[in-house]
Amino acid sequence: MNRHPPLKAESTPWENLEREQYQSFFSLIPDLACICSADGYFSYLNPAWEETLGYTKEELLSRCFSEFVHPDDKALTSVRMRQRARFVNHYRCRDGSYRWFEWNTAPNPDGTETFAIAREMNDLVQAQDALLVHQEQLRLLAIELSVVEERERRRIASELHDEIGQTLALAKIRLHDNLCNEQVTTGCARRVQHVSELVEKTIQAVRTLTFQISPPLLYEVGLKAAVEWLSEQFEAEHGLKIVIDSRESRMRLGEELSSTLYHVVRELLVNVVKHAGARTVTIRLRQMAHRVELTVKDDGGGFEIPAGAERSGGFGLFNIRQRIQHLGGVVKIVAEPGHGVEVDLTVPVGKRTANRQAKKQEKG
């Protein structure tokens, strides 16, 4: 079907001049400029259409504009072309490929025509796609760093306990044996006793450091016991009041999930000490049939979450979010200046966790 805009039988010289100026102006626009009639056909196109899409002017004018629109975008485009609007769609080129365009449309007062300009945004879309790829790579890197960090924590804790801890314990026994020797003078005994006390302090420091890095309680007794021990340490060192709200006697979770949640609690408590100025922290732990819920809430200064922001609070909270998402969970942050911060985590457990743990044991 050939469809061209109707031409007037006669045109005055002034109208011809006006039309030439009108077309000259539109030909200078590098973007795709057009006038579309209410029946869906183009009544005017500037040269950029032919240059960008590869069609001839006759091909474009003889077909309804919707024929060039990607099927996924037809409904949206049909509505927006009759409105003053700004939208994005992709248009088919003569070679069959599609290009992305950002449209600005404005119908005339009686709705018989729509004036539109479309700017190609293929480069922008490609840049956005590349950004998404880099963000995914960053997410995977953050997860891998967390896994490596936990592996190193357990290795260092094991070496502290097996090497340094046992060596210090043996040194203390030898010192005690010397104290029991009748040939030791009183002055020498006092010095040996002093050294023995220093060794005992060092043993306690190594034990505390071992627990902080990777607490044996976490793997021997469970998450709740490890969090209780951690809370006691923070209360003693930083003067916080930490309330643990948990009805669970022992939470049955895989090692990866237990370790992740433990270090999340520790990281959140560190954030409270550094930034919140809080006096009380509440830690709530719940294990359901198919999920575990963790909430850490403080009564500190809080902060403002920007509207629409998915990540807030710096790399610490970003890192927590990545680790929890890796386990299939979600993180919700509720914060308001002067009203503290509440971080809610929900992570699935059950078959998914069991399968993950079984695979780890097979590799081990």
Automatic annotation (TrEMBL):
NCBIfam families: sensory_box. One of its GO terms (cellular component) is membrane. The keyword Cytoplasm does not apply. This is PAS/PAC sensor signal transduction histidine kinase. GO terms for molecular function: phosphorelay sensor kinase activity; protein dimerization activity. It holds the Pfam family HisKA_3. Residues 18-74 form the PAS domain. Keywords: Kinase, Transferase, Two-component regulatory system. Residues 155-351 form the Histidine kinase domain. It comes from Geobacter sp. (strain M21). Its EC number is 2.7.13.3.
